[in-house]
């Protein structure tokens, strides 16, 4: 009888565990997307009235977790995937298993990234020192253009030559190491979310030696235009380039930058389930309700900044992935692969199937 009761209890607890939603995050605890996912899990739990737990899958360049979701975990109807901008750039340029076309979008935040520098840095003459990580590809391209100035046809080859002369690109450090290295002067640039910039680099002490250099702006999916970030109305890469060099950026590297910037920032914080998941509508509705909760909204804004949410199935969210696909042109994708390989030493590949 005791064994029978224990078996029943085990079955009940197993069923409860199965009933829980799981949010897969391709990072370890404490990293940017992981912190954001914990807040979202709390909000969805509150609305759904059932637990939403976060499961971390850290790995090289944050790819193993998304691959695991695609190959195995997405077939569980209560498993969701949280992806970030680095995953989006890797989808374009790396050998990955995952494919956004196979998922339903629950929702995303359409975001921006800001680049800071030491006030003492002379962009046109000094070596630019960068501590890089997944998703930094647009940042490096922008820095190269600002440091090197206009090139004939915006040539990838000419910018690569200048990049190797002017920019020290260091891979492999974690977020804390990158931030500490910037504050100690080992690196003279930093790349942060807006909220992290305000937290770590503004204020009387930190702001004495550091300044915001430029932002990437916010891509408007309706107008197909790159707009100023309302949180940073006087900073945009294109405006900074024109201020420094007297002309607008153009050419091959600028096209690469534009492609990777838009993919990364639109998909910087996105939630997915397997296509046809019977819980998709429930989750989208829960996310919509979560966004009206003042407590959760305040937590998200404090972590990430005040930016637009796009819920899957809405007019804007109905075809986010399709809209981004239209930006992928053969020459630009080919140049992006070359830039990634030769500037950053990333093992990028050309994907014919992505070309529009």
Task: Give a verbal description of the structure.
With 356 residues, the chain is α/β, with parallel strands linked by helices. The chain has 2 domains: 2-109 and 268-322, 3-Layer(aba) Sandwich (D-Maltodextrin-Binding Protein, domain 2); 114-264 and 327-347, no CATH class. The chain has 14 helices and 13 strands. It has a 6-stranded mixed beta sheet, with helices on both faces. A 3-stranded antiparallel beta sheet has the order 8-5-9. α2 packs across α11, α2 runs antiparallel to α12 and α6 (156-166) runs parallel beside α14. The protein is globular. The chain starts with a helix and ends in a 12-residue tail after the last helix. The relative contact order is 0.17.
List the helices and strands and how they pair.
Blueprint: H1 2-19, E1 21-25, H2 32-48, E2 52-56, H3 64-71, E3 79-84, H4 85-93, E4 103-110, E5 114-118, E6 128-131, H5 137-148, H6 156-166, E7 167-170, H7 175-184, E8 189-192, H8 194-200, E9 210-215, E10 218-220, E11 225-227, H9 237-245, H10 252-266, E12 269-274, H11 280-290, H12 294-304, E13 308-311, H13 320-325, H14 330-344
Parallel strand pairs: 1-2, 1-3, 6-7
Antiparallel strand pairs: 3-12, 4-12, 4-13, 5-8, 5-9, 10-11
Helix pairs in contact: 2-11, 2-12, 4-10, 5-6, 5-10, 6-14, 10-14
